[in-house]
């Protein structure tokens, strides 16, 4: 819910002071009734606002990043009532959709927005938006195995695209590595590791395109800066170049 004054100014029509003036002058209606109180509450999902008789179409887009914890579903409602990412977004105030999904047991960077065009573009595999993950495998992986992840391997839904793969460290029993993929298939990283006969013990998404998770704490969210959103918006030709550079 937002005040009418905010709705009018956020629609890009003018400043908040101007909006107050227009509302006071009777130029704004809500559900066909002229409202002259700038503090009148409006729900842009339900209410029809008109300015000088024309529908107000432009809604304010919001873009945010959440550090999804392990154990939260990327879904709106779960029949089993398990925690969902929406439990962490109760103070957002507008309905937002996730830009892609993270598995229940995956943590890390999740983008959410009410701008469906933006979401579709980021998720569209044609745009090759890079997603970077940190992975802990359940055993030591050889250079040859990391090479198979890098070059692409066969999964049941087809071969994977070339990926950027870098060993981070080996502990006594486990390999930790970084992988950047430009697709977003279901459980893709887990399935790629399983194709090697290994299992992912820990998976964290740390970046989407140029946007890293930074200092955000687990379970917390913040709005994207306009410049961050602009940098995320992939251009078809640049996206292709970025993906060829991965190899
Ligand atoms: N790959 C996976 O296997 N899981 C995720 O959540 C994201 C990428």
How do the helices and strands line up, and which of them pair or pack?
Elements: E1 2-3, H1 4-10, H2 16-24, E2 28-30, E3 33-34, E4 41-42, E5 49-51, E6 54-55, E7 63-68, E8 97-98, E9 107-113, H3 116-123, E10 131-137, H4 143-151, E11 154-155, E12 158-159, E13 164-170, E14 175-181, H5 188-194, E15 200-208, E16 211-212, E17 221-223, H6 226-232, H7 236-245
Parallel strand pairs: 9-15
Antiparallel strand pairs: 1-4, 2-3, 2-5, 5-6, 7-9, 7-17, 8-9, 10-14, 10-15, 11-12, 13-14, 15-16
Helix pairs in contact: 1-2
The structure holds uracil (URA).
The sequence of SSEs as H and E is EHHEEEEEEEEHEHEEEEHEEEHH
What is bound: which ligands?
A: uracil
Class from helix and strand fractions: alpha+beta
Terminal Cα separation, in Å?
Answer: 47 Å
Quote the beta fraction: 25-35%
Q: Count the strands?
A: 17
- Please compute the radius of gyration using only Cα atoms: 22 Å
Give the name of the CATH superfamily of the largest domain. Answer: Pseudouridine synthase
Poorly predicted tracts of residues: none
Q: Helicity range of the residues?
A: 10-25%
The count of domains is: 2
Query: The CATH topology of the largest domain, please?
Result: Pseudouridine synthase
Major β-sheet profile: 9 strands, mixed
CATH structural class of the largest domain: Alpha Beta
Give me the number of helical elements: 7
Give the second-level CATH assignment, the architecture of the largest domain: 2-Layer Sandwich
Shape: elongated
The overall pLDDT average reads 90
